[in-house]
Specification:
This protein has about 350 residues and is α/β, with parallel strands linked by helices. It has one domain: TIM Barrel (Alpha-Beta Barrel). It has twelve helices and twelve strands. The chain is globular. About 50% of the residues are buried.
Length: about 350
């Protein structure tokens, strides 16, 4: 059995019989976890182990564990700062900020890997322009070059822990005000401006081995009439062709309001895969997920299978081992400084 092209979610802290049936379907490829799926690290570890035991190769288990307001696992995990915190540090002391980003990237990845989670959908590579509230402090900085530097340091830490990274939201969500969970964002800037500014962090991380990308549910009207995640122009011509990206392309959640532009859930699934996605996400709608599983039961993409292999977590330290590691203690102390005073400059 191979990795199926669909990542779906589950409803609670353990698997139901119906979910077991869905996850045994050959179209299933992974599970994305949310806060509702988490009670304690022990419960999480048991849930992940159960998911991994269902199939060979193992289903991926992923989460959004960016830090700040997008952190699904909290109790028993270190509360991570938002990306913008590193940007504020960078404006005061670039060297210290880059060290902090690397240390916290390692911390995030190590704590997830200790419980068996394969990867987080991070880092956010969007520009912190102040236009997009849904991005907001999830962005490292306003300047593309600073976003690239901080994200690269963060990625070095994640890689050192044994985890792959997923840069999002390609080619950049920072210059639209609408929240694609709720509405259809349209970016009307010139293609040249997007390529010169928003794409710079993606280009830099691709050059340095970024394993995966998630496109935005945004229409860039002067470049392509389609949402980026359903656009062969953005995924094949620009991402694969111009940027030379050879990694995995995950769709954003096909249940989001903006994705409705591409039709019903079956049409969305087909359109995203045909445009260049390797794995698609359908969240918070189990009936739609089941429908996509059956719709794609004959789907096969050997090239995507080869790319997806790199997304499995590696080099895991178990929780007790991790908590004895000097790097963990140092990173936790660093983050404790953020928790006590989010605006302070750290003395690293």
């Amino acid at each position: 059995m191979s990795h199926g092209p669909l990542m779906l979610d589950i409803q609670g802290v353990d698997l139901t019989n119906e979910e077991l049936e869905l996850l045994h379907h050959p179209t299933a490829g992974g599970v994305i976890l949310f806060r509702r799926n988490f009670e304690t690290p022990d419960q999480l570890s048991q849930l992940v182990s159960r998911i991994h035991a269902l199939r060979e190769p193992k289903l991926f288990v992923a989460v959004d564990q960016e830090g700040g307001r997008v952190q699904r696992f909290c109790e028993g995990f270190t509360q991570l700062p938002p990306a913008a915190w590193f940007g504020r540090l960078y404006d005061k002391n670039p060297r210290h900020a880059l060290q902090a980003a690397q240390s916290v990237g390692w911390l995030m990845a190590s704590e997830l890997l200790a419980e068996g989670v394969d990867f987080s959908f991070a880092p956010v590579l969007d520009l912190g322009t102040g236009v997009s509230e849904v991005i907001g402090d999830r962005a490292f900085h306003r300047k593309p070059s600073v976003v690239a530097e901080l994200a690269q340091s963060w990625t070095l830490g994640v890689h050192a822990a044994g985890m792959a990274v997923v840069g999002k939201h390609f080619p950049g969500h920072g210059n639209v005000s609408e929240d694609s969970h709720l509405a259809l964002p349209v970016d009307r800037r010139r293609r040249e401006d997007i390529l010169m500014e928003d794409l710079l962090p993606f280009r830099r991380l691709i050059e340095n081995g970024m394993e995966a990308v998630m496109p935005a549910h945004v229409i860039y009207a002067k470049a392509s009439p389609d949402l980026a995640g359903f656009s062969s122009y953005w995924l094949k011509q620009v991402l694969r062709g111009e940027l030379g990206f050879q990694g995995v392309v995950f769709s954003d959640d096909l249940s989001m309001a903006a994705a409705g532009e591409a039709g019903d859930v079956s049409a969305r699934a087909r359109a995203a895969l045909e445009a260049g996605c390797d794995m698609i996400l359908v969240c918070n709608d189990q009936k739609s997920a089941a429908r996509v599983l059956d719709e794609l039961k004959a789907y096969s993409d050997p090239a995507a299978q080869m790319r997806l292999i790199r997304m499995h977590g590696r080099q895991k330290l178990k929780r007790k081992q991790l908590h004895l590691d000097k790097r963990w203690k140092s990173a936790v102390e660093l983050v404790a400084g953020y928790e006590s005073n989010p605006t302070m400059e750290l003395d690293l």
